């Protein structure tokens, strides 16, 4: 699971796949509430990053 944080959103867990499958894949992109999110396995931990660039 991962949580989403951002302007105007609440933080809550979201199931993006089975832990073992995410670890085996190394990295995946999933859609979470209409946003593309990169989920990656690095040094024993799972991390999630919003793929949207907020800089203008």
Automatic annotation (TrEMBL):
<dbReference type="InterPro" id="IPR036922">
    <property type="entry name" value="Rieske_2Fe-2S_sf"/>
</dbReference>
<dbReference type="Pfam" id="PF22543">
    <property type="entry name" value="Rieske_4"/>
</dbReference>
<dbReference type="InterPro" id="IPR054716">
    <property type="entry name" value="Sol_Rieske_ferrdox_dom"/>
</dbReference>
<feature type="domain" description="Soluble Rieske-type ferredoxin">
    <location>
        <begin position="14"/>
        <end position="55"/>
    </location>
</feature>
<dbReference type="GO" id="GO:0051537">
    <property type="term" value="F:2 iron, 2 sulfur cluster binding"/>
</dbReference>
<protein>
    <recommendedName>
        <fullName>Soluble Rieske-type ferredoxin domain-containing protein</fullName>
    </recommendedName>
</protein>
């Amino acid at each position: 699971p991962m949580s989403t944080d951002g302007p105007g959103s609440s933080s809550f867990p979201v199931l993006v796949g089975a832990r073992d499958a995410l670890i085996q894949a190394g990295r995946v992109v999933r859609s979470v509430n209409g946003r593309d999110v990169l989920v990656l396995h690095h040094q024993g931990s799972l991390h999630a990053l919003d793929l949207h660039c907020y800089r203008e």
